[in-house]
Q: What sequence folds into this?
C-alpha cells in the first residue's frame, strides 16, 4: 500500500518556434518566451502552473539557442529546474519525451512525468490540477494518460480523441485519435459528444513510456537511451549526444505510442485551454471592447469591429472601416490578414526563410 502522496515531475517541452504567430513570434524569439496573455511569458505561466506541492522540480526540453533565455525567465519567477535537456536538433515530441524518460531513469528515479507544451494558455489552474490529481492512480498503475478538452466549437486545427463510455471520475479508454478533421467532420464530432480536443498533455510513469517506446518505436527508444548515456553534463544543462539523438526518427509521441498502444486512456479536463496556435485564437482569448476589437499598444481604431490590433512599436497604427482583421506591427515585421486566414501567418515566415 502506498503511504506517501504521489509526486509528479513536470516535463516542459520548450523547443518550438511558433511560426503561426509571426511577426510577434520568430525563430529567434519563439512564442513560449513572449508575454501573450498577461505579464508572464507562456513558459513562465506554464512553470508557475506546476510549482505547487504536488510537483517536483521540472525538466525542460529545449534547444541550445533558447537555453539562456529560459534560464533567465525561470530565475525571474523563482523556479529552479531539475535539469535542462538540450536537443542537438528538433526531432518532434517522441524523442523529446523519450529522452526525458530515460534521463529520469538514469538518475535512479521513476517519477510520474507530466508532459506539457510550454506555449499553451490554461486560465483555470485549479481545474488543471484537479484533472492531474484524478489521473494519478491510473498513471501509477501503468496507463498512459492523455488529457482531452471538451470542444467549444468545430475547430479544424486540433486533433480529436474519441472516448469510451464514462467510468466515474477515472480516465476513459481511448477509441481512436483523429488528426485535424475537415469542418464537416469536426461539426459531427462536436454534436456527437464522444470526442475531445487533444490537448497535447500527458501523464505516465517514466518506466511506462520507456516500455511503450521500446515496444512500438524501438528506434526512438534506442536513440534516446544512447543519447542520454552519452550526454555532456554542465550543471543543470544536459547536452544529449548529437549522433545518437539524430539517429531517431522525427515522430510525435501520438504516432510513436498513443495510436499504437493498448494502455492509453484519456482524462477529460474541463479547463479554459488554448494552444494559442493562431492570431484567431489570440483574438478569442483577448479582452474585447464594445465593438469586439482586441487592441494593445498605440493604435487608433475607427468604425471597425471584431479585429485584433497589436502594436509592439512606438509608431501609431490606424485601423479604419475594417471587420474581422488581424493587424500586428512589431520591429520584426507587419502582418495584415483577415481573421479567417490567420493560419497563413506560418506561410509568411516560411517564405521569408527562402528569401
A:
Amino acid at each position: 500500500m502506498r503511504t506517501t502522496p504521489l509526486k509528479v515531475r513536470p516535463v516542459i517541452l520548450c523547443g518550438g518556434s511558433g511560426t503561426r504567430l509571426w511577426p510577434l513570434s520568430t525563430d529567434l524569439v519563439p512564442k513560449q518566451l513572449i508575454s501573450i496573455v498577461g505579464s508572464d511569458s507562456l513558459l513562465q505561466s506554464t512553470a508557475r502552473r506546476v510549482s505547487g506541492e504536488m510537483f517536483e522540480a521540472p525538466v525542460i526540453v529545449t534547444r541550445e539557442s533558447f537555453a539562456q533565455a529560459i534560464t533567465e525567465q525561470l530565475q525571474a519567477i523563482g523556479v529552479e529546474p531539475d535539469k535542462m535537456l538540450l536537443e542537438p536538433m528538433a526531432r518532434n515530441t517522441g524523442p523529446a519525451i523519450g529522452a526525458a524518460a530515460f534521463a529520469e531513469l538514469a538518475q535512479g528515479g521513476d517519477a510520474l512525468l507530466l508532459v506539457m507544451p510550454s506555449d499553451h494558455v490554461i486560465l483555470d489552474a485549479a481545474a488543471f490540477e484537479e484533472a492531474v490529481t484524478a489521473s494519478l492512480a491510473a498513471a501509477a498503475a501503468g496507463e498512459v494518460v492523455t488529457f482531452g478538452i471538451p470542444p467549444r466549437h468545430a475547430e479544424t486545427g486540433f486533433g480529436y480523441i474519441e472516448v469510451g463510455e464514462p467510468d466515474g471520475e477515472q480516465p476513459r479508454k481511448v477509441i481512436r485519435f483523429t488528426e485535424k478533421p475537415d469542418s464537416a467532420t469536426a461539426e459531427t464530432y462536436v454534436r456527437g459528444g464522444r470526442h475531445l480536443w487533444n490537448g497535447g498533455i500527458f501523464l505516465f510513469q517514466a518506466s511506462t513510456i520507456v516500455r511503450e517506446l521500446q515496444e512500438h518505436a524501438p528506434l526512438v527508444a534506442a536513440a534516446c537511451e544512447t543519447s542520454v548515456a552519452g550526454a555532456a553534463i554542465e550543471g543543470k544543462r544536459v547536452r544529449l549526444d548529437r549522433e545518437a539523438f539524430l539517429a531517431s526518427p522525427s515522430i510525435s509521441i501520438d504516432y510513436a505510442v498513443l495510436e499504437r498502444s493498448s494502455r492509453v486512456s484519456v482524462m477529460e479536463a474541463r479547463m479554459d485551454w488554448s494552444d494559442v496556435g493562431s492570431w484567431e485564437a489570440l483574438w478569442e482569448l483577448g479582452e474585447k471592447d464594445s465593438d469586439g476589437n482586441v487592441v494593445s499598444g498605440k493604435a487608433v481604431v475607427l468604425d471597425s469591429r471584431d479585429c485584433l490590433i497589436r502594436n509592439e512599436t512606438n509608431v501609431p497604427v490606424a485601423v479604419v472601416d475594417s471587420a474581422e482583421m488581424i493587424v500586428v506591427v512589431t520591429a520584426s515585421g507587419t502582418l495584415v490578414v483577415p481573421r479567417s486566414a490567420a493560419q497563413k501567418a506560418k506561410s509568411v515566415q516560411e517564405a521569408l526563410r527562402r528569401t
Remarks:
- The two ends are 62 Å apart (CA to CA).
- Residues 125-140 form the longest helix (16 residues).
- The chain has a mean pLDDT of 92.
